[in-house]
Design brief:
GO molecular function, one term: pyridoxal phosphate binding
Shape: globular
Modified residues (N6-(pyridoxal phosphate)lysine): 27
Family: Belongs to the pyridoxal phosphate-binding protein YggS/PROSC family.
Strand content: 15-25%
Number of domains: 1
Cofactor: pyridoxal 5'-phosphate
Helix content: 40-55%
Order of helices and strands: HEHEHEHEHEHEHEHEH
Pfam family, one: Ala_racemase_N
Number of helices: 9
Strand order of the largest sheet: 7-6-5-4-3-2-1-8
Number of strands: 8
CATH topology: TIM Barrel
Bound molecules: pyridoxal-5'-phosphate
Distance between the termini: 16 Å
Length: 226
């Protein structure tokens, strides 16, 4: 088993001291690896693929808080709506509406983060600043009762240029503060800023992250070929 429990303990301690939530990203990893961290007290786990998440959720304890951090297709919302804790990557009004609908069917309110595109790479999902503004305005007008926007999520460029990465996180924090101010006039507190992964979480925390998503530092490198 490749779980690095020492790295877990030290990262967890460091983040607790700064009141930053650690989401352990377990995609492609077996349930035994999740159990290893669960036994050390970890409860927040992140997955990217719907089928994999559903399979794991069925096999693991009920008090795990499951975060969906991948790109979610509208037609798959129904599979995770009964139990998901937080959906990080919401990047369209269409998806918000679908989550609202499926949450209502399950008599729940589902918490979500809007994903903002901050990296230079074209491949990363998310809204730009203008789309974010529009989404928030339309969300307020539609008065969706079963979905709650709790904050923003973003991914920095995959780059060794740490000043560039820092600048991208800083941009996201600025957008977060502006969105929070906008929504504060209505009664929707924005409290979660999900940014930072294995390679850049320390910078993300310095720039104001409240939630980091860490996979390979805890579980080892991923092998997608299997
Ligand atoms: C896979 C993934 C992570 C974790 O990446 P690591 O570099 O292994 O820490 C974090 N966030 C998202 C959105 C991911 O897809």
């Amino acid at each position: 088993m490749a779980v690095n429990t020492e790295a877990y303990q030290s990262i967890k301690k460091e983040l607790d001291a700064k009141q930053v939530t650690l989401v352990a990203v377990s995609k492609t990893k077996p349930v035994e690896d999740i159990v290893a961290l669960y036994e050390l007290g970890q409860r927040d786990f992140g997955e990217n693929y719907v089928q994999e998440l559903v399979d794991k959720q069925a096999q693991l304890p009920n008090d795990i808080r499951w975060h969906f951090i991948g790109h979610l297709q509208s037609n798959k919302v129904k599979y995770i709506a009964p139990f998901v804790q937080l959906i990080h990557g919401v990047d369209s009004l269409k998806l918000l509406k679908e989550i609202n609908k499926e949450a209502a069917k399950n008599n729940r309110v589902i918490d979500v983060l809007l994903q903002v595109h901050i990296a230079q790479e074209e491949t990363k999902f998310g809204m730009n600043a203008e789309e974010l503004n529009t989404a928030i305005t339309e969300f307020e007008n539609l008065k969706m009762a079963n979905v709650r926007i709790c904050g923003l999520m973003g991914m920095a460029s995959f780059s060794d240029d740490m000043e560039k990465v820092r600048g991208e996180f800083c941009n996201l924090k600025t957008l977060f503060d502006a969105s929070a101010a906008k929504l504060a006039t209505h009664h929707l507190p924005l409290s979660v800023l999900s940014m930072g992964m294995s390679g850049d979480y320390a910078i993300a925390v310095e720039e104001g992250s409240t939630m980091v998503r860490i996979g390979s530092l805890l579980f080892g490198a991923r092998n997608y070929a299997k």
